[in-house]
Prior knowledge:
It is a single chain. Helix 9 (250-260) packs antiparallel against helix 10 (299-314). This protein folds into three domains: 2-114, Uridine Diphospho-n-acetylenolpyruvylglucosamine Reductase, domain 2, CATH 3.30.43.10; 121-234, 2-Layer Sandwich (Uridine Diphospho-n-acetylenolpyruvylglucosamine Reductase, domain 3), CATH 3.30.465; 239-399, Vanillyl-alcohol Oxidase, Chain A, domain 3 (3-Layer(aba) Sandwich), CATH 3.40.462.20. It has 433 residues and is an alpha+beta fold. The strands form four sheets. It has a five-stranded antiparallel beta sheet. It has a four-stranded mixed beta sheet with strand order 1-2-4-3, with helices on one face. It is built from 14 helices and 15 strands. It has helices spanning 2-9, 24-32, 49-52, 74-86, 138-147, 162-166, 175-178, 206-215, 250-260, 299-314, 332-335, 363-378, 399-403, 408-418, and strands at 40-42, 65-70, 91-94, 110-114, 121-124, 129-133, 150-151, 185-192, 197-200, 220-228, 230-231, 269-275, 287-294, 322-329, 351-358. The two termini are 13 Å apart. Bound molecules: flavin-adenine dinucleotide (FAD). Flavin-adenine dinucleotide binds at residues 57, 92-100, 115, 134, 155-157, 160-161, 163-165, 167-168, 170-172, 217, 221-222, 391, 427.
Amino acid sequence: MRWLGAVQSLFFAGQIAHCMVLNGTQIVHELGSILSNGSSIYLPADADWDTETTQRFDTWHAPTYVVSVKPALTTDVQKVVRYATLHNISFLATGGGHGYSGSLGALQNGLELDLGYFNSVTVDAANNLMTVGGAVRFSDVEEPCYAVGKAFPVGACPCVGLAGASLGGGIGFYSGLYGAISDSLVSAEVITGTGALVTASESENSDLLWAIKGAGSSYGVATSLTYRVYDYLNDGYAMNADMLFSASQMSSLFTFAKSWLEKQRKELSITFSLIYVATLQEVIHASVPYALNLYEIGVEDLTAAVQYFNDTVASTAALQGVFLAFTQYAQYGFQQHPQNSSSFPYRDVAIQIDGSAASDDDVPIIDSFEREFRDRLVNISGKDELEVYMQFSHGDEGADAWFSAANVPKLRELKRRYDPLDLFRFYNSVDVD
Ligand SMILES: Cc1cc2nc3c(=O)[nH]c(=O)nc-3n(C[C@H](O)[C@H](O)[C@H](O)COP(=O)(O)OP(=O)(O)OC[C@H]3O[C@@H](n4cnc5c(N)ncnc54)[C@H](O)[C@@H]3O)c2cc1C
């Protein structure tokens, strides 16, 4: 229905979308009668709602649900998608629950299509392949790979969904070697917005494979994904070194980072994190993300920007839950894969910047400071327009910034083919029009 698409675009004007008034009990009854026995359905009032359904990492602009459906089989997922379409019910598939884009807040009182039962991991060492279910997390694949002498380029936090991350690219400390996680995606079983189950691979629906390797959550539900795995290096050991620097050393650190741009070893990833520790944060509730890509390291400009950041945070109690990370991967891994091999757009980034700030009470102040700081950095990013890693984005940057202006026309055309009703529209999505 078109009105739902219009609702999404109103989100950042401060208006929240409410999908049709859902009666969770009715859905339990109707879906319960058609799903296979192993499936489960929960209502928020159920005692085990918090433990049995996928909970979201962040309370900021969180989607809300009147019902959570956990299908057991791929055919059950198809039934849920068709049922939701028939009854005009807005829904979101959830994997690891770590999607934190503000765009998700547009889904209120919807249906959670919880992929929690799609949690299998199979490593085929002989063929260097790994097949996982749609809700498997980074932590679930490390041991099975290591046990057979293989490595896989997971991201930094173990609890993030592997499908969720890699459908939007997926970056981490192995990116310098292997590129984005999506670069290792070989094929996926996807239930599209038409309810069809299709294989996306080089030989079948290769255009869909291109699209889901970067903009994947706009096209359907991936119940099974097969990735390339790699012989592990260094007997499977990696070294992590944490060092503490004072703010006065910032200029030297950026000089060092700049000197590494051309010669960074592909095995090495560097992250400079700024964490203000004047007050001890207790529990993180609302975390407001911002991010951007830097293509050049202007030492003086960056040092001045960070100095401004430090001074402002130090003098503003409301901002003292901020976290800012500058991560530098070797470009080698990204550049092993041609630009047109997928919709993952940005392969020549010098530094990925992502920041968030946690607070329950001071979200407007935090939001406005982070936005202002992000906009300052855009001016020294080496590009005229904001470009951002979609998975770390705030959620209002738009498709050109997430996927690149060059990719958007093809992504739209594919969206019209695979999700013509725009069912998969709540997460930094590609528009149908
Ligand atoms: C603490 C934290 C650490 C992070 N670390 C990293 C990192 O190191 N590297 C990195 O690249 N990103 C990282 N991210 C960002 C992460 O990649 C995105 O937030 C990603 O969307 C999370 O996926 P999920 O499955 O956990 O989340 P969910 O909230 O479950 O899903 C997010 C989006 O992906 C879709 N989705 C999930 N699974 C499927 C599926 N099987 N089929 C179709 N759509 C699906 C959902 O519908 C939703 O639109 C991090 C995020 C957090 C909060």
